[in-house]
Amino acid sequence: MNPSAPHPHRRRLTRAEVRRRRRSRAIRRVAGLTVMLCVAAGGVSFLLTRRAVVPSASAASAISMPAQSIADSTVSSAENTTAPANALGLTADEARAILADPLMVLVNHTSKMPDDYTFDTKECGSATAVNKTLQTVACDAFLSMQKAAAADGVTVWMQSGYRSVKYQTSLYERKTKYYLDKGYDNATAKEKAAAVVNPPGYSEHNCGLAADLNSPEHTTLDTGFADTAAFRWLCENAEQYGFILRYPKEAESVTGITYEPWHWRYVGPENAALLNQSGLCLEDAVAVLQRIAAGETVTG
């Protein structure tokens, strides 16, 4: 270009032209951005499609598996997702967790309370109670249950709870003497005593989870308590507070203890619901749980 040539005349844009050009640039920017977004979306969709059709490692290996192996694998997968087919509807891990729960400790005439089983206690017994305490968690649950019963016009008292081994010894020896005085020999007297009062160290009263209950209707601890409003209320409501009837009439041959409508055991609300639904006493429930935990198939 000839530097001496005059510059061409430049017309100043009108305001209307400036606005039109600005709108045009804005439209081009939006269009360009839209195209970019479409391209990006298409790329993502393509990648997802590619990923969906790429076989997984397990699927790839299944391609080369014999037909029988594939069938076996399918059955195994179904077994892992199907609800457990056993009396309690539990997996082995669930059964082991319940067995490990301190509230499910089994203490009876053949199963001694573990030496390392320790706990705190709290008082909840009636004014005339011989042993006024329970494990703290059981005590709190009983007090809540007692309050609920009172709201329904029913009075429930805790007459005997946690017992020391020393106290249990005195009960057992007293009952043994009773049968000795009846003319039984020492071995038979002890056997009969054990059917009513567990030997020291073998009573669940020693673990602080067992509660002998009564009411103003029937203060003595005997089968007459079964005819009270308090007992009927407990049968309908105790489960939700974590208590079960420990020695039901139909389980005498299993528990080794004669029917005791006054003797209730705290196991926690979830465990109580599980046991009551199964219809099993604690001994049978623990036996079933042990089999399930070991991987056995338990039905019926």
- Rounded Rg: 38 Å
Structural class, from secondary structure content? alpha+beta
Major β-sheet profile: 4 strands, antiparallel
- Please state how the strands of the largest beta sheet are arranged side by side: 3-4-6-5
Pick out the low-confidence regions. Answer: 1-14, 33-82
Distance between the termini: 105 Å
Strand content: 5-15%
Helix count? 11
Helix content: 40-55%
Give the helices and strands as they follow along the chain: HHHHEEHEHHEHEHEHH
> How many strands in all?
6
3D structure, described in words:
There is one protein chain. It is built from 11 helices and 6 strands. It has helices spanning 15-53, 57-63, 67-81, 92-99, 136-151, 165-181, 186-194, 229-237, 252-255, 269-278, 282-293, and strands at 121-123, 133-135, 157-160, 210-214, 243-247, 260-266. The longest helix has 39 residues, at 15-53. The N and C termini lie far apart (105 Å).
Set down the secondary structure blueprint.
Blueprint: H1 15-53, H2 57-63, H3 67-81, H4 92-99, E1 121-123, E2 133-135, H5 136-151, E3 157-160, H6 165-181, H7 186-194, E4 210-214, H8 229-237, E5 243-247, H9 252-255, E6 260-266, H10 269-278, H11 282-293
Antiparallel strand pairs: 1-2, 3-4, 4-6, 5-6
Helix pairs in contact: 4-11, 6-7
Features:
300 residues, four-stranded antiparallel sheet, two-stranded antiparallel sheet, alpha+beta, 9% strand, disordered N terminus
In a nutshell, what does this entry contain?
With 300 residues, the chain is of the alpha+beta class.
